[in-house]
Design a protein that fits this description.
By secondary structure, this protein is an all-alpha fold. The protein has one domain. Helix content is 67%, strand content 0%. The protein is built from ten helices and no strands. α1 crosses α4, α6 packs parallel to α9 and α6 packs antiparallel against α10. The longest helix has 28 residues. It is globular, with a radius of gyration of 17 Å. 42% of the residues are buried.
Length: 245
């Protein structure tokens, strides 16, 4: 049976694709006000990249695994995976811009992006949740298809991307500290933000990628799993965007 075609096409050139994705991400920064929740997430992505280019930028020969041999190969694969991940987010932005429907994982952020009762840290974390829970598994499968490999061969690259995504989570903390008030113990928002865990989200994303890749010859099951994964991530995102303003 032919491999399921739910995922993005193979990039012709990883470096060119990476550069193009980041230029487009940077261009979005000027198009939307900071009060827009989607624009806030976009800005956080770029902020993390500016802090450490190797962690969430080019990734060719710098940062983790920048040595020779397998380390250098892992860095290249991590860069390709980061590019595929950013392209997933940009595809959602493009679809919504022309009146399309966002994936369920992203839908709450786009629906509540201008809600005055939702605070910046919530927008930030909801974006990170969708990016990891939805985009990362699909980007991993995209790269598996492109390379003709299994997820296990990308495990090191996946871990490097996880390190990079940790910078986005750090930016959520920055948004909290930059907020109008300091979160105290017992504050409902502090409890809400504290209930989300990066390590657990990455573990779930890795498991989802492995399952999706394993189901590639059973398209109906793969599609059902993808839809349920998408819906589950969207439910978490909707909870994270509970208005507290």
């Amino acid at each position: 049976m032919a491999e399921i075609q739910l995922f993005a096409a193979r990039p012709e050139d990883d470096r060119r694709a990476s550069d193009s994705a980041w230029r487009r991400l940077d261009a979005l920064r000027a198009d939307r006000p900071d009060s827009d929740g989607v624009a806030l997430f976009n800005r956080l992505c770029l902020s993390a990249a500016d802090d450490n280019e190797a962690s969430y930028g080019d990734g060719y020969g710098t940062g983790h695994g920048s040595g020779h041999g397998s380390g250098h190969a892992a860095a290249r694969e991590a860069s390709a995976l980061r590019s595929a991940l950013v392209e997933r987010y940009l595809a959602t932005v493009d679809a919504v811009a022309v009146g399309g429907r966002a994936p369920a994982a992203w839908r709450p952020l786009f629906q509540y992006r201008r809600h005055p009762g939702v605070r910046p840290a919530q927008f930030a974390l909801a974006g990170v949740n969708a990016h990891i829970g939805h985009d990362l598994p699909l980007a991993t499968v995209d790269l598996c298809r492109a390379r003709g490999c299994e997820p296990a061969e990308l495990e090191t690259a996946f871990a490097l991307v996880g390190d990079a995504l940790a910078l986005l989570v750090e930016r959520v903390g920055d948004e909290v500290r930059a907020g109008p008030d300091t979160l105290r113990v017992g504050d409902p928002l502090a409890h809400l933000l504290g209930s989300w865990n990066l390590e657990r989200a990455l573990e779930a994303a890795w498991s989802s990628a492995r399952v999706l890749r394993g189901l590639r010859e059973v398209p109906p099951l793969a599609e059902e799993f993808r839809e349920r994964m998408d819906a589950g991530v969207g439910l978490v995102g909707r909870c994270l965007l509970t208005p507290y303003g």
